[in-house]
Design goal:
- This is Transcriptional repressor.
- Belongs to the Fur family.
- It holds the Pfam family FUR.
- InterPro entries: FUR, Fur_C, WH-like_DNA-bd_sf, WH_DNA-bd_sf.
- This protein is α+β, with helices and mostly antiparallel strands.
- It has six helices and six strands.
- The termini are far apart.
């Protein structure tokens, strides 16, 4: 975790920002809950446990700054809530998601299946893709199994 914090600190410094204690507390919460796709309010509640003096506005500003710098991705899964997801250090692109429209569960696809499409876009249209995000909405396996069970 310390290596990732140092990397984020360097990213901030390269853009003229400092890793303040408030920003560091926010980053630590994101790292500790990397699989959870937290909302700003979720991050705030977890940060408050570590640093009670931090306000919601500070957490919002930190998340927006990290989003602008592509340290985190700001995601919207159609439920009207912005969620934040750390980008992997070694990833050129963001990962993809499978979102269940029944239970709201989310599964990540870490593989980048769109590289052949990006290469084709470059070749055929002269379009250099900087980034992409792909979210699939449907019904997860658990909900399908529940739906297939006869009502008792």
């Amino acid at each position: 975790m310390e290596a990732r914090i140092e990397t984020i600190k360097q990213q901030l410094q390269s853009q003229g920002y400092k890793l303040t204690p408030q920003r560091e507390a926010t980053v630590r919460v994101l790292l500790e809950n990397e699989e959870d796709h937290l909302s700003a309010e979720d991050v705030f509640m977890l940060v408050k446990d570590k640093a009670p003096e931090i306000g919601l506005a500070t957490v919002y500003r930190t998340l927006e700054l990290l989003s602008e710098m592509h340290v985190v991705e700001k995601l919207n899964f159609g439920d009207g809530v912005a969620r934040y997801d750390l980008r992997a250090d070694n990833s050129k692109h963001h990962h993809h998601h499978l979102i269940c429209v029944q239970c709201g569960s989310m599964e990540e696809i870490k593989e980048d299946w769109l590289l052949p499409l990006e290469e084709r876009l470059e070749r055929e249209y002269g379009f250099a893709v900087a980034d992409h995000r792909l979210d699939f909405q449907g019904v997860c396996r658990r909900c399908q199994e529940k739906n297939d069970q006869p009502n008792e």
